[in-house]
């Protein structure tokens, strides 16, 4: 396959930042901290058009390319973009969200409300689904697919309203399924929620309902029915571990995901629509992600855990993606889109020397052309990335991702431990903007996949149950010890930083543990475990099953005080930086404000950076950069890097 790098017309609009990044010896923090040059890319139905979300000075812009030429450029300001997809070849659908304050009668005071913006390529007016519609409350609740010629009809969930003495009232807080004509904007309800359950739908390629999943949160009961209302399968899932995934790879079947007895390994089930017994699907495979065809709604492939290799169920398609992967040796290759003929592919590469690149692969021409890049960083400035294996203190095999500073020998380096959030998640050897930013400043960065992480099998994940602040915590410091033993890092020059659960681990590293880290940075981290669990259970309407689930995953309620850093502030043995978005609905802002108050009362050194208008995911460029600059300045102050070598 011939690989040709074409001039990327879309990036010409991104301003001087690209030129600056490629020309300077060391990229400024702005390159990492601001929003990516390109955040997401999507391919149209025919494969002839490409849509991408680019950013210019923290302002997002939708750009549409055809044959490498810009045919549409539409600004969207600082809207938080969550997804991008095509409806045929004529309309781009961009899902955005905003933090929304709810009325007092709702269980939670805030929620992240989503809208779907329709952008016609023919430059007709841009509009939003359910925009200024008094019959639907607060935007879109789920995208269920497209149907019709050139995907004329879209299917969206929305909370229906009713008029009550001239005031608008929300019926029940559960969405109705609507069909929306993307040409005329006309909508029609096609399915409503039952009175006693939350319903999800699975649609066929013609827009007809194929199956329905009803769940009762208070009891954990669930049932899947076919279009005729016939019960196909049912069960109990206290934690809500049940999802309709797609239609099956074979006709007249569907795929759903659940957990064995809700306490065991996650599994996929292929369920016939005629009510015949279902059977486990791909039971011998470790699956990182699914590949669902947006047109047929069928399960057509998956990405394996660990090596992230793409597997297509169709032999010819599998042969094509395998050959494509071989064209990018030593990189992680993802499949982002394809046309109906499967002879034009949109792939994303990342890894050693690659800060994230989208390619349009044309199988008939045997070419792969660059569409855009995530970060405009010279390959020489991408810190080396590799997997580092080690053993925990109890002998459990572990691994993590080690990112090294570019141009420096891997010897006796200052180090930052960067545990991931979740904690049900994993880090992989790909370009990570947090890790790369820190590495560019002279630090080794280690992202340990502690027990409880996903992607390493059921036993490894279950080994983390009840281990918050215990073995999950020592797995991180055991990684530090292993790196020091190899001579890669200096254990006396270590800091710990993380977001969400990783922020909890950072706080625990200097309160539950002592004499390990010179500083800790918690971004949207958990300081009070008991308060977090109580908040989540209250927002669920007092779901007792959810409380039991937390007891299983974190520990019994009696344990919460002992593993909460807020209760151990007096033991903090290193300076702490707390950073939190004010609009965070996942880990409430008061988790950091309470921790800051506790550290201050204990006379411990603490700094607190509040990010106005920011959510849990650091969706805004200005505040994202503010987080990174504050974190780097704090770490450099308390754990200075070595002088930069001559370049």
List the defining traits of the structure above.
6-stranded antiparallel sheet, 18% helix, alpha+beta, globular, disordered N terminus, 647 residues, 8-stranded mixed sheet
Q: Can you tell me the overall shape? A: globular
Q: In terms of per-residue confidence, which ranges show pLDDT below 50 for 5 or more consecutive residues?
A: 1-24, 103-108, 165-169
Number of strands: 38
The end-to-end span amounts to 35 Å
The overall average pLDDT, rounded, is 89
The chain-level structural class is: alpha+beta
Tell me what portion of residues adopts beta-strand conformation: 35-45%
Helix content: 10-25%
Radius of gyration: 25 Å
Quickly count the helices.
Answer: 11
Largest sheet: 8 strands, mixed
Strand order of the largest sheet: 31-32-34-33-35-36-37-38
Describe what is shown at a glance:
The chain has 647 residues and is of the alpha+beta class. It is 18% helix and 38% strand.
Structure explained in plain terms:
By secondary structure, the chain is α+β, with helices and mostly antiparallel strands. The protein contains 11 helices and 38 strands. An 8-stranded mixed beta sheet has the order 31-32-34-33-35-36-37-38, with helices on both faces. Strands 10, 11, 12, 13, 14 and 15 form a 6-stranded antiparallel beta sheet that branches. It is globular and about 65 Å long.
